[in-house]
Design a protein that fits this description.
- Two copies of one chain form a homodimer.
- Chain A has 137 residues and is an all-beta fold.
- Chain A has a single domain, classed as YaeB-like (Elongation Factor Tu (Ef-tu), domain 3, Beta Barrel), CATH 2.40.30.
- Helices cover 0% and strands 35% of the residues of chain A.
- In chain A, the strands form two sheets. In chain A, strands 2-3-8-7-4-9 form a six-stranded antiparallel β-barrel. Chain A has a two-stranded antiparallel sheet with strand order 5-6.
- Chain A starts with a strand and ends in a 9-residue tail after the last strand.
- The C terminus of chain A is likely disordered.
Chain lengths: 137, 137
């Protein structure tokens, strides 16, 4: 498989210390977290403001990358499904998608509400939720 | 910045040969395309079926990774915005998100409708649209 040259642009700073602390869904009591970005990309953050809905793309670095099938909702009574039909974190490339609301922006730090990613999770990208894909070409 | 060890799990096979061929939005006449996956991860595809809505995550390998600001919708009369408030393909880590419907599955090849990604685009991940994030921890 082809290697992709990708580097984190920041990381999550959160009170969630491990996967077992993380809520099963982001709306179920996930805490606020800081997104701390690298100074080199700070100019790209300049239009973000409180209230914006964003898609945060992370690298779930504590996932199991050998996993190709999972029992739906962890229920061993149910037959295993291919991971690409699920939202399991365990998968060959454990990319996390998190739709969150910005609470505050302070220089290269952005505070968001209800983020289920755990402390230290690398950030790969941030996209607008609302802007249509008109520039994506 | 920290290197992330990520490898493509497949690639897009499409009649779209270049960025200038790609429609501005996926609903505006984007063609069907084949997603051709590596045999090593084929077991993870086994629950995908025609009619499923998926989020296809790609690596937009022809994007400009130095770009930190863009004029909204390419309109030079409008002031530039930080890329992280947009859906521009040009950005430090050009990750593409495409919500598409599966038309056919043939072994490790999956046909999808209305995909604006161009021929040869590396595939990083596939997720269910409908499944809630209950397993994502």
């Amino acid at each position: 498989m082809n290697q992709v040259d990708i580097r984190a642009i920041g990381k999550v700073v959160s009170p969630l210390a491990s996967r077992s602390d993380a809520p099963r869904q982001s709306d179920e009591g996930a805490p606020a977290a800081w997104l701390v970005f690298e100074p080199a990309i700070a100019e790209g953050l300049r239009s973000l403001k409180p209230g914006d809905r964003i898609i945060l793309i992370t690298w779930l670095d504590r996932a199991n990358r050998e996993t190709l099938t999972v029992h739906p909702r962890g229920d061993l009574a149910r037959p295993p499904e291919g991971v690409f039909s699920t939202r399991s974190a365990d998968r060959p490339n454990p990319i996390g998608l998190h739709e969150v609301t910005i609470e505050a922006v302070e220089g290269n730090r952005v505070r968001v509400r209800h983020l289920e990613a755990i402390d230290g999770t690398p950030i790969l990208d941030v996209k607008s939720v609302l802007t249509v894909d008109i520039a994506q070409r």
